[in-house]
Amino acid sequence: MSSAFQRHRRVAIAAAGLLIAGASVTALGLTGTFSSAPKAATASGERAQYWTVSKVVTNATQAPALPAYAYVAAAGGDEVVKVNVAADQITGTLSDDTGEGVAVSPDGSTVYIANTGQYSVLAANSTTGAETSIELGAYPQDVTLSPNGSLLYATVTGGDTGPGGSNVIAVIDTATATVTGDITVGTAPRQVVFSPNGTRAYVTTEDGIYVIDTATSHVVQVFPNFEDPQGIAISPNGSMLYVTSPDAGTLWQINAATGRLIGQVNGGAEPYSVAVTPNGSTIYVADMNSNSVDVISAATGRVTGSIPVQGLPMSIAVTPDGSQVWVGNGYTGSISVISTATNTVTTTISGGGQATALNSALTAIAFGPAS
Question: What is the pTM of this model?
Answer without folding.
Answer: 0.83
